[in-house]
């Protein structure tokens, strides 16, 4: 608060401002930034391992391995969120879990879990993408399944 604003406050308000400063919880900003950096980096490292797996075992190129890597990371995040593991990781890592694509996966599955008692269509389907729309769910999932089938057929079917 600037000095001009402090001068306009009554003595009781100024006293309250001082008391508030004394009792304010000090946040460990540097520590939180380091934890977010480490967790976000670990998620990205796992993503790189997944991408390398697709490149090595399924003959993807660096350009084409990105989509299945993102789909796999989102799927793993959804599983972890469903089992309650991702929430503990997010408690520790903070923004480090929100920035990568795993934050998207968590944001998708959390509302679905909250409304699952309302049924699959109105509960899960209607609330799974409060941010992006339920059409994306079926589009992304269908594209992932088709790409996986195509990859398997090309790899082992000789098409």
Automatic annotation (TrEMBL):
Keywords: Membrane, Transmembrane, Transmembrane helix. The chain crosses the membrane at residues 36-57, 69-86, 93-113, 128-149. The keyword Ribosomal protein does not apply. InterPro entries: Spore_V_AC, SpoVA. The keyword Transmembrane applies. Pfam families: SpoVAC_SpoVAEB (PF03862). Coiled coil: none annotated. This is Stage V sporulation protein AC. It comes from Cytobacillus oceanisediminis 2691.
């Amino acid at each position: 608060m600037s000095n001009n604003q402090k001068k306009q406050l009554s003595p009781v308000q100024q006293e309250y401002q001082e008391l508030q400063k004394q009792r304010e919880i000090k946040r460990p900003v540097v520590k939180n930034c380091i934890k977010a950096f480490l967790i976000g980096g670990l998620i990205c490292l796992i993503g790189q391992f997944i991408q390398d797996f697709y490149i090595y075992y399924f003959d993807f190129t660096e350009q084409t391995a990105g989509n299945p890597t993102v789909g796999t990371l989102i799927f793993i995040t959804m599983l972890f969120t469903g089992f309650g593991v991702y929430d503990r990781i997010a408690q520790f890592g903070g923004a480090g879990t929100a920035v990568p694509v795993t934050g998207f996966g968590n944001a998708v599955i959390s509302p679905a879990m909250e409304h699952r008692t309302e049924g699959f269509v109105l509960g899960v389907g209607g609330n799974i993408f409060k941010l992006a729309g339920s059409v994306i769910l079926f589009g992304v999932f269908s594209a992932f399944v088709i790409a996986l089938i195509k990859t398997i057929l090309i790899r082992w079917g000789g098409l």
